[in-house]
Amino acid sequence: MYTNQYKFKYLEWHSPEEIHETTIKWQSELDFIEIEWHFLQELLSDNTLLLLSETDFEKTKKLISELVSYKKVIPEIRQLLEQHRNDLEVLVDGINERQKEKAFKDRHLLLELKINDFNEQYRQVKNAIFDVMKTSLKKRKQKTLLSKR
């Protein structure tokens, strides 16, 4: 990965069991994001006409594009997590290999940063989609109420 570019100092380090549990948690979160992605995609596609008539087309198009880009990143992160779990053996094999262990810990920290960044950006897009949908539905409801008068 990028371990040659960065030098990390550890104040505290987790046990191999904690690293394994963290990796499993990340995989679970990624599974949830993938399911949630399908929900968001369906929400947008089911309400395309509403979004086109009630919101800024370019903004909606940009959100859909960002959502699609996250779908492409999920398998990449999933592969990194699987490889990371497999590489955990270097910490538990009983052989004292300081260089490999340090490289693994550096990769773990970089992976944590990558996952946190992915989660934060995905959350922002998800919130923006919900805001657009909420605004569109409110406008539609107002028009419906006004037309009934």
Walk me through the structure.
The protein has 149 residues and is mainly α. The protein has one domain. The protein contains five helices and no strands. Helix 1 runs parallel beside helix 5. The longest helix has 51 residues. It is rod-shaped. The model has no long low-confidence stretch (mean pLDDT 81).
Shape: rod-shaped
The helicity comes to over 70%
Radius of gyration: 21 Å
Structural class, judged by helices and strands?
A: mainly alpha
- SS elements, strand count: 0
Name the average pLDDT: 81
Percent of residues in β-strands: under 5%
Report, as a whole number of angstroms, the end-to-end distance: 64 Å
Order of helices and strands: HHHHH
Describe the main β-sheet briefly: none
Spans of at least 5 consecutive residues whose pLDDT stays below 50 are: none
How many domain modules? 1
Count of helices?
5
Features:
149 residues, mainly alpha, 5 helices, 83% helix, 0% strand, rod-shaped
Question: Topology of this structure?
Answer:
Blueprint: H1 16-46, H2 48-54, H3 57-87, H4 89-92, H5 98-148
Helix pairs in contact: 1-3, 1-5, 2-5, 3-5
How would you briefly describe this protein structure?
This protein is mainly alpha-helical and 149 residues long.
